[in-house]
């Protein structure tokens, strides 16, 4: 009996429960052991005493008859409303005593089944609609010219053809803790764009910072509100949202690899509009973040003029603290970015032995080795857990031209696109290094490079692994004579096997030589 596929109750001739299968609780919400000895009719809350047993006895008189489930049922109440427990009953004897075995299952009434079917259909339609939105946003952001166009087009696509009533894109501002709306789109009751005139969104611990947008920016998780009328943390915006016809909302972080570009806030005129679609909305956020990053990198690569910024950091970085203690000077000689969190810095050391710098860093780097060294200088290979400041700047769309650390202070000269959001870039650095300062900003002309077209052509022909192998080998001294790093050491740095490194390196070499000789 305890191995039956459906719940089973065994009933004695006097109508009391003798035994019950372990899963009977799914039907009667009682512990099977606690049922023994109770009248079966009282197990079902809406049954009259004796009714259940007598009706089951009537069916047991003809156990072989073809009787439908509904012909032997009892009314009960569930969380969905009135329904029925349906029985398949047969009699059996033990020691000349006849017992009844009732196999039970719950049959939902048509109204409950229809309501559940409608709910499932609505959820499926939401998922299909947002999946189509993901594809549409992907196509639209590829064609956008710059960051502002990307922010505008994602708002337009998420409100046309009317999956949502209103959308706006906000950029967080660290200095003021405000989230600044920079693009919006939509139509509907109450002039939705006017909503932004009467609401404030922040990133601090105030009530205006603990809503969906603030939480999405803080956790980089999609945050939804099923019904704005009773959401506990939606108080500061409830009245304005209801006035504009909004009933549910979702805040989508636009972030990638630890870099937060902003938040996309969506509003709908019905409740539950974002149930079951958080994963798809998360895809939208990552697609937009990738598009913004690619746009900034593309602009930086081809712009005729650039912005040159000088940043200063005096605390919060282990390299800065090390120079203050040792009196040495560190300079960035190479940087090999990686999407797996193992970006490598090649740091030149002057005025002390590289080994002393490693001792001062203690366990701060996740990877560290001396590439070359003497008593008064050398080269270190370093990788830090999480983002170092060079990786942080690169992720924010800036290219580090020079970086020098000495006397407990780091200075970075970086180049970025002429239309870059400088305030946003500095805010991004300050999230990790709060004392970072912008020392200067100026526009410069890009210097013509005779080899630029050849280099771009070669880069396009290299795979990412080949490019990483060549760049790592170059900065780590593998191409020097005598070699400063072995192939095995480069392989360990790349976290691959030596044969894999050699394979990527040789393939990259062939591409480089081919560009020169062909």
TrEMBL record:
<dbReference type="Pfam" id="PF04967">
    <property type="entry name" value="HTH_10"/>
</dbReference>
<dbReference type="InterPro" id="IPR031803">
    <property type="entry name" value="BAT_GAF/HTH-assoc"/>
</dbReference>
<feature type="region of interest" description="Disordered">
    <location>
        <begin position="48"/>
        <end position="67"/>
    </location>
</feature>
<dbReference type="InterPro" id="IPR007050">
    <property type="entry name" value="HTH_bacterioopsin"/>
</dbReference>
<keyword id="KW-0804">Transcription</keyword>
<dbReference type="InterPro" id="IPR003018">
    <property type="entry name" value="GAF"/>
</dbReference>
<feature type="domain" description="GAF">
    <location>
        <begin position="153"/>
        <end position="275"/>
    </location>
</feature>
<feature type="domain" description="Bacterioopsin transcriptional activator GAF and HTH associated">
    <location>
        <begin position="304"/>
        <end position="455"/>
    </location>
</feature>
<dbReference type="Pfam" id="PF15915">
    <property type="entry name" value="BAT"/>
</dbReference>
<protein>
    <recommendedName>
        <fullName>Bacterio-opsin activator domain-containing protein</fullName>
    </recommendedName>
</protein>
<dbReference type="Pfam" id="PF13185">
    <property type="entry name" value="GAF_2"/>
</dbReference>
<feature type="domain" description="HTH bat-type">
    <location>
        <begin position="462"/>
        <end position="513"/>
    </location>
</feature>
<feature type="compositionally biased region" description="Basic and acidic residues">
    <location>
        <begin position="52"/>
        <end position="62"/>
    </location>
</feature>
<keyword id="KW-0805">Transcription regulation</keyword>
<dbReference type="InterPro" id="IPR029016">
    <property type="entry name" value="GAF-like_dom_sf"/>
</dbReference>
